[in-house]
Each structure stands twice: as C-alpha cells, then as structure tokens.
Prior knowledge:
The chain is mainly alpha-helical and about 110 residues long. It has helices spanning about 5-35, 45, and strands spanning about 85, 95.
Amino acid sequence: MEKKISRRAIVKGGLVAGAMVPVMGWLVDARAAAMPPLDPSDATAKSLGFVTDTGKVDGAANPTHKATQKCANCVQYQGKAGDAAAGCNIFAGHSVPANGWCKVWAQKPGA
C-alpha cells in the first residue's frame, strides 16, 4: 500500500521547519552561555601558557607576546565583538575571557 504526501503536508512541514530555525539558534546561544570558564590551572591551559588577563603574561617566557594580543581578536575565539567571554576552539567545552591569552593565539582576519 502506497501513501502519497499531499502538497499541503509538505508546505506545513516547511513552515514548521522554518519556524524552528530561530529556536535552534537560541538553544545554541544558551548552550554557549552555560559553558564553564576555563581554569588556568587546567593541564592543557598550563601547557599553553593560558592567562585570564593578557596584561599578566610573563614576557620572559613568551617573548613574542604583544599587549594587543587577546582572546577577543584570536581566530580561535568563538564569540562576537563585545562578548565578555566565549568558547574557544582550543579549549573545547570551556569559555575563555575576551581579555585572556595563550600561546596558540593567532590574529583573526580583519581584527
């Protein structure tokens, strides 16, 4: 037995799916906001020289560091301009402060 799908059912399904797109965006934003902040004493954070404030970087241990380098203008930072903290591709599952820094820092294009 073959069941045919009417055009009306397809249109209704499309409208429902279209209405869900903004809802999914809100869920992703809520999940990002719920990420725990990265602990500087975390083993990975320590190995990459992570600090929560770029002004506190040890210049002797990190001679290539510049004061303008911070998470907010790093290509790995997943936040938007003005976010106080956001996710990071290097420290998955954790948020990093916009003013933080680590040895993996790389200039975000256009920043």
